[in-house]
């Protein structure tokens, strides 16, 4: 029984996902309370009614006590986790014992991350984000929610089954020669071919990688490009998997429970929408049918994938079409870019996913032509945020005087920015003129009246307007005008696909098998009693672990039955436990649990492999962001924290988890751990990026 | 109090909210607030917390079809109990283990029910103010005195057996056994200065019995011999098992063969020969200015303190006494007290002046008309009478008293049995026995119990008093805590107040590991290490042990290394803890 809900402060549902059991439970509760002969209410409405008291109480607590709910546990072990991001309240529920509080909090943060990747800086304005998450148009909303539901389900499936999503680090295919060849191929052949073509429509391929299921075969970033952060890479893998689920699904289908169709769901939309819908139908282009599925079905993700890209989320007043799943349409993603002059979060990119064969995917990330606008918008947003902060801290008079040069500065820069934008688009200048008007107005006001507090609301509205510009530029751009969508031309995409297919033709079967048995415990005969291990290099965000296949017919040494399932449970539990202790500042944990002995170590090294001294790790409160990478990169913060005491040195961070048989004497276990720690990252065994 | 403030195990909020009082739209939330701690909290904040938490609690429990257990906010957390339209919440600091927090709430509620019977019923028969006093006392009792480690394990406080001649512990056990010769005595325990010397009851019951003792002990340190009884309620299941569940605190190395044969004779003879009350009197002399008057009454037999007895119509000799005496005591009429009803009664209390002042203090806090001790809280006889009829011969089916008196379904499977708590105090020492209520009618049996134990108790008290109190356990270059899950006791060398850096990190690690042990059945052993400290923990079915070795900084890189000092902790712990009587083999 699982559910994830995003609601606004006024208890409006901005997104929900439930599994069939939860849905059934809600419907049962409502079915019981309904009078005979009455139709049960639409699911979304029931959900809204059920959660509204919690949501409203939450904002009451914030207003009056300055505190809000973090978690509820019931006597039958149902868990509720709540978290507020700006004005959006996320609630995750589990009632089947499969997810603990930490898992739910992680799910919430991952959902937030996905929304950031899909909507970028629109996240900075709650008002705009609310409109994006809940488009007025029912079809659009259904489509978008289906897409987000698909992402959430894909993430949950991966977290349950894939070790790399368990520890949130990328797993590489261990085949040094082939990996090297592929990287070279991407570098020397594919990227030059694409970036020199005239059909790229001003886009530039920055990153390219090949995935075999969730494992990385090759990754290449063009020179002078910012590195792709591990968090973003993991998010992109989730998106790829959501578009092209690997065939593990077909071998091990989840419970394919189709919720009963609710024909009446459309009736629940307000009449104003209904009239608007008919407009849409009359004008819009083909392909609407697919979104007539009245209710999103949680388990059916196949059709939602590429078709309902973030382009769906655009302002319904401007763009009407709901494009059919166009496999060649890029997905707009917002990724972090670190340049010499700083870190720019949520910079727009286009992502092209080309399936080579089932299970093998080529992913291209391109820089779009007007992406520099995003940087400007970001710096103005920052400037206004700073200004606002200063204004609210200092009062009138002296503070205003101090602030003035900055405002002046901002004004001239903004002028230039508007001029530079002028010829780009028709929509943009209109909004910006608006901004300018406000800006002058506020500036004039400030000069005359000298009331800093009056400027604060203007600062806020400037920020909202800037987010609006950003939205206009990057969220509406992907599908604007069927005539010339901004993208690599279909021919070019097909070329890329063909080139890589040709390169890997002879390897594809090998790769598919290899991805299931990347490394196996058989390769470690020197470690008697060692059942399993996971080793993670947190500096590069990569992990190594023997395959632990549970859902496969092709079994590992552990076999495919209950034993493997048991070990899997233990490993998953160990990671959870290790994180709990790490959160409280413990970097070494050993546990004797039933017939097994578990170890967890975290340590730091410098570049030459010299082990660095331990420092006191930060002790985090219970409701801090989950320890991991995908949603919030804990390890990056940890490394930064550690580097403070080791200035001028490159610091690396490693983690090792082992599972041994309990009968093995502890000193041998520790020796094994020591050997694994030093052996695993030898270059000969593991080619680095 | 200062100690309490420093303790992170202290609760921040506690309230009881009665949902049946606030049902209509217009009903003010304050109507439902039965008790709120801290009491000085402004009413609108009380209303906010009660209203919001109870509302959200109900909403969540409807969604999950199960009551809420834990409710956490960003800066505080609450253990919740929802039963029978009542909503309890106990708030604690964030770093206090959630398991322990929930335990404490359960303990608190059970403690209340132990002395007052079912909650709904006691709120029908008593004023809110009276019961608020009870809650605040129980709350104080559960939080007071002990170290944070004691709070984490919610354990009993026992005397430090390493400093005490095992013979004394054996003697205590024998006294209890002797009392059990009377068939109406179910089980008992002996407490000394708020700590358990020996008990035959399961730990959960001992805690409740102690609640009363600790209160009185703290208030009346030099009270002389008294004995009294008060009504208490035990779940029927518990009732059946009490007699069979005998636990004592003798260290396992006690040499039974020697002691069994000679203790009774050696110990009892010197005590029995002099006039029993004489000795405590002498010992008490320096403390009590009113010596002479006390001595005059020494020969009389102590009474069943009528103040605390259940004013039941079934005990005709006692109830009129109670009715007369209550108001008089309220007026602080010493003379009346001693000369009036006591002459009629075969039993009466000894009151030294100290005892008296404390008695009045005791009295002053309870509203005089209810004639109830603040702790054991028997309602006035008249009001209580119809309900008591609902209890057929001690085996009460509380549902039997009719739906209007006991609404709610939650109560019906929790049959409670009223029992009487017999208490016999010899200064710091207290013998507490759970007895069948009709023991009070059976004067012969009562006297027998009293006399059979009196002398030995005097002797035991004299011996225990000579043992230097409070000397903390052997200090060494290590910190440890050993928790016995069966007896619910803790042995540790963490002194409550020193609060060094090491102690603090030890407590923090212990609370994490204890939580982990509670949540995982298979976990047997753990070592956790941060840059500064390494803590080893091990548990079996019956015990949990935590060990930290002091020493210089661990200068370690954290990389797996078999020479790491953290991994030598298990063998060190085995070694070091042997001399504390803890065997980890």
From TrEMBL, chain A:
GO molecular function terms here? guanyl-nucleotide exchange factor activity
Where would I find the FUZ/MON1/HPS1 first Longin domain in this sequence?
2-158
One GO biological process this protein is involved in is: melanosome assembly
Cellular component GO terms held in the UniProt record: BLOC-3 complex
User: Which InterPro entries does the entry mention?
Assistant: FUZ/MON1/HPS1_longin_1, FUZ/MON1/HPS1_longin_2, FUZ/MON1/HPS1_longin_3, HPS1
Domain FUZ/MON1/HPS1 second Longin: start-end pairs: 204-378
Source taxon at top rank: Eukaryota
Q: Where is the FUZ/MON1/HPS1 third Longin domain?
A: 529-682
Identify the PANTHER family for this entry: BLOC-3 COMPLEX MEMBER HPS1, HERMANSKY-PUDLAK SYNDROME PROTEIN 1
Q: What is this protein called?
A: HPS1 biogenesis of lysosomal organelles complex 3 subunit 1
- UniProt source species: Gadus morhua (Atlantic cod)
From TrEMBL, chain B:
| An annotated GO cellular component | lysosomal membrane
Highest taxon of the source? Eukaryota
Query: For the CCZ1/INTU/HPS4 third Longin domain, which residue ranges apply?
Result: 477-573
Report domain CCZ1/INTU/HSP4 first Longin positions.
Answer: 12-117
> GO biological process: any one?
protein targeting
Q: Matching InterPro entries, A to Z?
A: CCZ1/INTU/HSP4_longin_1, CCZ1/INTU/HSP4_longin_3, HPS4
Instruction: Output the Gene Ontology terms for molecular function.
Output: guanyl-nucleotide exchange factor activity; small GTPase binding
Q: From which residue to which does any coiled coil extend?
A: none
Q: Where is this region: Disordered?
A: 258-410
Which residue intervals are annotated with compositional bias (Pro residues) in the record?
A: 366-381
PANTHER family found in the cross-reference section:
BLOC-3 COMPLEX MEMBER HPS4 (PTHR14407:SF9), HERMANSKY-PUDLAK SYNDROME 4 PROTEIN LIGHT-EAR PROTEIN-RELATED (PTHR14407)
Q: What is this protein called?
A: HPS4 biogenesis of lysosomal organelles complex 3 subunit 2
């Amino acid at each position: 029984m699982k559910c994830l809900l995003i609601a606004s402060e006024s208890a409006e549902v901005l997104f929900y996902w439930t599994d069939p059991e939860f849905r059934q439970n809600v419907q049962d509760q409502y079915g019981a309370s309904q009078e005979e002969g009455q139709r049960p209410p639409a699911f979304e409405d029931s959900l809204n009614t059920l959660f509204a008291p919690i949501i409203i109480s939450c904002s009451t607590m914030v207003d009056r006590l300055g505190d809000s709910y973090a978690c509820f546990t019931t006597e039958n072990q149902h868990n509720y986790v709540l978290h507020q991001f700006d004005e959006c309240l996320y609630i995750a529920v589990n009632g089947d014992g499969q997810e603990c509080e930490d898992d739910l909090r992680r799910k919430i943060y991952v959902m937030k991350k996905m929304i950031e990747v899909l909507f970028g800086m629109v996240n900075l304005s709650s008002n705009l984000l609310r409109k994006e998450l809940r488009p007025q148009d029912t079809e659009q909303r259904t489509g978008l929610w289906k897409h987000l539901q698909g992402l959430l389900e894909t993430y949950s499936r991966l977290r349950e089954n894939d070790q790399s999503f368990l520890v949130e680090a990328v797993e590489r295919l261990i085949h040094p020669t082939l990996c090297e060849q592929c990287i070279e191929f991407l570098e020397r052949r594919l990227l030059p071919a694409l970036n020199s073509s005239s059909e790229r429509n001003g886009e530039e391929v920055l990153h390219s990688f090949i995935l075999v299921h969730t494992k990385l075969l090759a990754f290449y970033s063009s020179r002078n490009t910012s590195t792709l952060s591990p968090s973003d890479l993991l998010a992109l893998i989730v998106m790829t998997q959501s578009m092209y689920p690997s065939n593990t699904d077909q071998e091990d289908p989840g419970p394919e429970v189709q919720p009963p169709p609710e024909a009446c769901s459309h009736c629940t939309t307000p009449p104003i929408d209904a009239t608007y819908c008919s407009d849409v139908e009359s004008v819009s282009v083909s392909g609407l049918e697919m979104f007539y599925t009245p209710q999103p079905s949680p388990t059916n993700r196949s059709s939602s994938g590429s078709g309902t890209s973030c382009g769906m989320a655009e302002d319904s007043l401007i763009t009407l079409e709901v494009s059919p799943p166009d496999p060649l349409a890029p997905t707009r993603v917002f990724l972090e870019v670190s340049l010499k002059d700083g870190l720019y979060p949520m910079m727009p990119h286009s992502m092209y996913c080309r399936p080579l064969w089932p299970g093998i995917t080529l992913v291209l990330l391109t820089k779009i032509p007007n992406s520099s606008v995003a940087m400007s918008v970001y710096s103005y947003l920052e400037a206004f945020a700073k200004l606002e902060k200063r204004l609210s801290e200092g009062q009138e008079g002296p503070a205003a005087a101090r602030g003035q040069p900055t405002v002046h500065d901002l004004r001239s820069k903004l002028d230039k920015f508007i001029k530079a934008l002028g010829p780009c688009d028709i929509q943009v200048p209109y909004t910006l003129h608006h901004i300018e008007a406000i800006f002058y107005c506020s500036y004039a006001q400030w000069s005359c009246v000298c009331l800093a507090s009056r400027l604060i609301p203007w600062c806020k509205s400037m920020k909202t307007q800037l987010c609006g510009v950003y939205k206009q530029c990057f969220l509406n751009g992907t599908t604007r005008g069927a005539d010339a969508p901004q993208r690599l031309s279909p021919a070019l995409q097909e070329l890329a696909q063909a080139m890589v297919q040709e390169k890997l033709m002879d390897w594809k079967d090998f790769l598919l098998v290899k991805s299931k048995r990347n490394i196996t415990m058989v390769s470690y005969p020197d470690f008697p009693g060692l059942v399993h291990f996971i080793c993670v290099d947190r500096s590069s965000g990569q992990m190594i672990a023997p395959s632990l296949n549970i859902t496969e017919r092709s079994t590992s040494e552990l076999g495919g039955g209950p034993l493997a399932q048991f070990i899997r449970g233990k490993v998953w539990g160990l990671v959870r436990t290790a994180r709990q202790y790490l959160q409280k500042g413990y970097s070494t944990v050993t546990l004797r649990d039933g017939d097994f002995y578990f170890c967890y170590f975290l340590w730091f090294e410098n570049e030459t492999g010299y082990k660095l001294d331990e420092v006191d790790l930060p002790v985090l409160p219970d409701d801090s962001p989950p320890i991991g990478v995908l949603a919030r990169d804990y390890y990056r913060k940890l490394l930064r924290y550690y580097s403070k005491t080791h200035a001028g040195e490159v610091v690396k961070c490693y983690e090792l988890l082992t599972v041994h048989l309990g009968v093995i004497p502890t000193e041998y276990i520790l020796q094994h751990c020591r050997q694994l720690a030093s052996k695993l990252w030898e270059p000969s065994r593991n080619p680095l990026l | 109090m200062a100690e309490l403030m420093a303790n992170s195990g202290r609760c921040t909020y506690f309230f009881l909210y009665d949902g049946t009082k606030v049902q209509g739209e217009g009903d003010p939330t304050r109507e439902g607030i039965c008790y709120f701690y801290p009491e000085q909290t402004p009413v609108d904040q009380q209303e906010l917390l009660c209203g919001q938490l109870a509302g959200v609690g109900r909403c969540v429990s409807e969604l999950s079809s199960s009551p809420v257990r834990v409710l956490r906010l960003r800066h505080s957390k609450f253990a919740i109990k929802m039963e029978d339209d009542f909503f309890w919440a106990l708030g604690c600091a964030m770093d206090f283990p959630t398991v322990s927090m929930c335990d404490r709430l359960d303990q608190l509620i059970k403690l209340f029910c132990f002395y007052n019977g079912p909650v709904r019923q006691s709120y029908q028969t008593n004023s809110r103010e009276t019961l608020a006093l009870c809650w605040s006392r129980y709350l104080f009792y559960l939080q007071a005195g002990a170290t944070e480690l004691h709070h984490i394990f919610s354990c009993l406080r026992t005397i430090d057996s390493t400093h005490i001649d095992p013979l004394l512990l054996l003697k205590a056990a024998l006294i209890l056994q002797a009392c059990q010769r009377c068939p109406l005595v179910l089980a008992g325990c002996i407490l000394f200065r708020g700590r358990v010397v020996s008990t035959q009851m399961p730990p959960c019951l001992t805690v409740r019995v102690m609640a009363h003792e600790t209160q009185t002990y703290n208030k009346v340190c030099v009270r002389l011999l008294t004995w009294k009884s008060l009504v208490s309620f035990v779940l029927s299941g518990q009732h059946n098992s009490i007699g069979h569940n005998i636990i004592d605190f003798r260290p396992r190395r006690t040499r039974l063969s020697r002691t069994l044969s000679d203790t009774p004779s050696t110990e009892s003879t010197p005590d029995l020969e002099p006039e029993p009350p004489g000795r405590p009197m002498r010992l008490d002399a320096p403390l009590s200015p009113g010596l002479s008057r006390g001595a005059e009454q020494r020969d009389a037999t102590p009474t069943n303190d009528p103040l605390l007895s259940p004013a039941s119509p079934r005990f005709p000799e006692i109830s009129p006494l109670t009715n007369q005496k209550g108001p008089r005591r309220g007026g602080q009429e010493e003379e009346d007290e001693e000369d009036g009803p006591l002459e009629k009664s075969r039993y009466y209390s000894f009151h030294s002046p100290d005892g008296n002042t404390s008695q009045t203090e005791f009295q002053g806090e309870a509203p005089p008309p209810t004639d109830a001790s603040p702790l054991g809280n028997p309602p006035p006889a008249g009001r209580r009478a119809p309900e008591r009829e609902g209890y057929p011969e001690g085996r009460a089916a509380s549902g039997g008293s009719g739906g209007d008196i006991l609404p709610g379904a939650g109560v019906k499977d929790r049959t409670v049995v009223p029992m009487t708590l017999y208490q016999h105090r010899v200064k710091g020492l207290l013998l507490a026995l759970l007895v069948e209520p009709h023991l009070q009618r059976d004067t012969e049996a009562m006297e027998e119990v009293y006399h059979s134990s009196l002398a030995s108790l005097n002797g035991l008290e004299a011996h225990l008093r000579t043992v230097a109190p409070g000397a903390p356990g052997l200090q060494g270059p290590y910190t440890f805590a050993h928790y016995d899950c069966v007896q619910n006791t803790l042995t540790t060398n963490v002194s409550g107040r020193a609060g060094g850096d090491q102690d603090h990190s030890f407590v923090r690690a212990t609370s994490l590991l204890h939580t982990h042990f509670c949540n995982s059945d298979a976990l047997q052993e753990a070592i956790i290490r941060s840059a500064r400290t390494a803590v080893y923990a091990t548990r079996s079915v019956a015990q949990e042990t935590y060990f930290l070795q002091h020493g210089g900084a661990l200068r370690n890189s954290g990389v797996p290394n078999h020479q790491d000092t953290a991994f030598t902790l298990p063998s060190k712990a085995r070694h070091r803890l042997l001399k504390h009587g803890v065997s980890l083999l």
